[in-house]
Specification:
Layout lengths: L4 H25 L2 H20 L17 H9 L4 E6 L13 H17 L2 E3 L28 H17 L4 E6 L5 H14 L4 E4 L6 H12 L13 H10 L6 H7 L3 E2 L2 E2 L3 H31 L6
Parallel strand pairs: 1-2, 1-3, 3-4
Antiparallel strand pairs: 5-6
């Protein structure tokens, strides 16, 4: 007998309809004491599972999404009680850079900050942020591929992610972003959370986005200065840091083949040299950010705890 997708779907639907009432009736037939007993048993099983030992060696990662729940639990028990929330974006970045430009940078940045702090884990990068009007496209939304959130949606996501981390016991929630349009929302969310929280602290770190300092450091310490401006939403600093994560994100091979392997008067070839420069620039940003995080945490420790 042959079953089509439609007939199988009908079988499943009928089965669900047949068995769901039985389960419902069975629940209704339980006494209040029996329902309470079963609820207590479920709670006991959950608590036993939460206390169970991790059966294998932990994976070495600072990214919560790459860890098992047991690895997160054990990392927190070992002192990693700081969580980092980063915000990037999906937007137009000229003819060469992938729309996820900021997210590529944050891959290396959050990893570096968390490992330098030594007591932190990275939440998944918030990749969708305000990029301009949606119903009446404006800003980056004028360009295909850009995805935008309303400001209130963005801030609601940040609040929910931060509150989830706090619920698990993280004591310091760090927020920083790689796009200018994200800064005010993160600052506002951190302020609101700190008004409500008494057993955790949110820290908005604007120092991560001080790109002018990155260009100045590149000039004074590395002797690299952009001689021209191509007028694109692109520059040598961002390109080199993206190449650390993935050279294809800046279309390296295609640009070399087309004789377009420059940005703002600087060559991005050879690839190895530009990647090395990108690592140095990321290292500078990591150090600046870690110093700012530690200063913010120290400052919060000096404030009288809220009741």
């Amino acid at each position: 007998m042959q079953f089509t997708a439609r007939s199988l779907a009908l079988v499943f639907a009928v089965s669900a309809a047949a068995f769901a009432p039985l389960s419902l009736f069975a629940q209704q037939d339980l006494t209040a004491e029996e329902r309470a007993r079963r609820a207590a048993e479920r709670e006991q099983r959950t608590q036993e599972e939460l206390r169970s030992e991790r059966p294998i060696e932990a994976f070495d990662s600072v990214w919560i999404e790459e860890l098992t729940w047991m690895e997160v639990r054990d990392a927190m028990a070992a002192g990693k009680t700081t969580a980092i929330i980063t915000t990037g974006g999906i937007e137009q970045n000229g003819p060469y850079l992938a729309t996820g430009k900021h997210n590529y940078v944050l891959q290396g940045a959050c990893e570096g900050v968390a490992r330098e702090l030594g007591n932190a884990l990275c939440a998944p990068i918030i990749k969708l942020v305000p990029e301009g009007g949606i119903d009446e496209p404006s800003g980056h939304m004028l360009y295909p591929g850009t995805i935008s959130l309303r400001q209130e949606t963005f801030e609601a996501v940040l609040e929910d992610v931060a509150s989830s981390l706090k619920a698990h016991g993280f004591e310091h929630i760090i927020l920083f972003g790689d796009s200018g349009g994200n800064q005010s929302g993160m600052e506002a969310v951190a302020a609101r959370l700190n008004e409500r929280w008494y057993d955790a602290e949110a820290h908005f770190i604007p120092e991560f986005y001080e790109y002018r300092k990155v260009f100045d450091w590149m000039g004074t310490e590395l002797g690299i200065v952009e001689p021209t401006n191509d007028g694109l939403h692109d520059d040598f600093v961002i390109t080199s840091m993206m190449m650390v994560a993935d050279p294809t994100a800046v279309r390296y091979e295609q640009r070399v083949a087309a004789g377009q392997a420059t940005i703002n008067g600087l060559s991005i070839a050879p690839k190895e040299e530009t990647i090395e420069t990108g690592k140095k620039l990321l290292g500078f940003r990591v150090r600046q950010t870690v110093d700012a995080i530690r200063a913010s945490i120290d400052a919060s420790a000096d404030v009288q705890p809220r009741p």
